[in-house]
Amino acid sequence: MKLFLNGFVFQLRLARRSPDTFQVCATAPLLTVIFLAINKYTGAGDLTSFAVAAPTLMSLWMLALSTAGSALTEDRDLGTLEGQIAAPAPMELTFLGRMCSVVVVGLVAFAESWLVAGLLFGRWLPVPHPFVLTGCLLATAVATAGTAGLLAPLFVLTPSARTVQNTLSFPFYLLGGVLVPASSLPDWVQPASRAIFLSWCADLLRDSLAAPPVHLPALRLLAVLALGAVGYGTGMVLLHRVIMRVRRAGTLSQT
């Protein structure tokens, strides 16, 4: 727990000075304005919940990708990554704490989107299921941090983590049902979509902002957490193997 908290506090301090954090906080309101403006002038039904949910999930995933890539890349450039790997303390717990820190910061995007919808468009979105909403946001944060851990081995091996980040942004938004519900995707894509935790998060987040009762919220929250745990577990196993390989070869600074 101490290692987790050390990573959490350390990354939280870095996030206050990170351009990526400010970029995410500035992007979420702008995306909300764009989505609601399109909704208003196309005469479609009220899609406020979509306009609030989409920027929130996009901001979380964007910040997680950015921080996961920059954290290990900066550590390698500064020459501190070798010391972390050589230390007896497990690097996996510290990394998870760092990732959880930034995604908690990313939850500010939900408040920003909700306020923009109300202040600029007069669409004060009610919260008929506050407990489900809170559980969904927390589970999404944990699953985002865990899934980003799956990418850690790629960021260690890839000279430019930014390439991986750009590749895994918008495909995840689409397959994850962030922009449109996963049920609207072609039938042959939907099984792959359900394997992405964002699709469960997006559906549950929109349902928690709608008036009808939420169907099986506990089971859906469990699915989000399970997918995040699978991603984190797989990522840490791969990261351990990568670290052992580069440690034996002595090529960590060259990867």
Automatic annotation (TrEMBL):
Record membrane topology: Multi-pass membrane protein
> Which Pfam families does the entry mention?
ABC2_membrane
Q: Which GO terms describe its molecular function?
A: ABC-type transporter activity
Which subcellular locations apply to this protein? Membrane
* ABC-2 type transporter transmembrane domain sequence ranges: 22-208
Gene Ontology process terms (BP): response to antibiotic
Q: Where are the transmembrane segments?
A: 21-38, 50-72, 93-111, 131-156, 168-185, 218-239
Cellular component GO terms held in the UniProt record: ATP-binding cassette (ABC) transporter complex
Provide this UniProt record's keywords sorted from A to Z. Answer: Antibiotic resistance, Membrane, Transmembrane, Transmembrane helix
- Please give the superkingdom of this protein's source: Bacteria
- The principal location of this protein is membrane
Record-linked PANTHER family = NODULATION PROTEIN J
Name by which UniProt lists this protein: ABC-2 type transport system permease protein
Organism, scientific name: Streptomyces iranensis
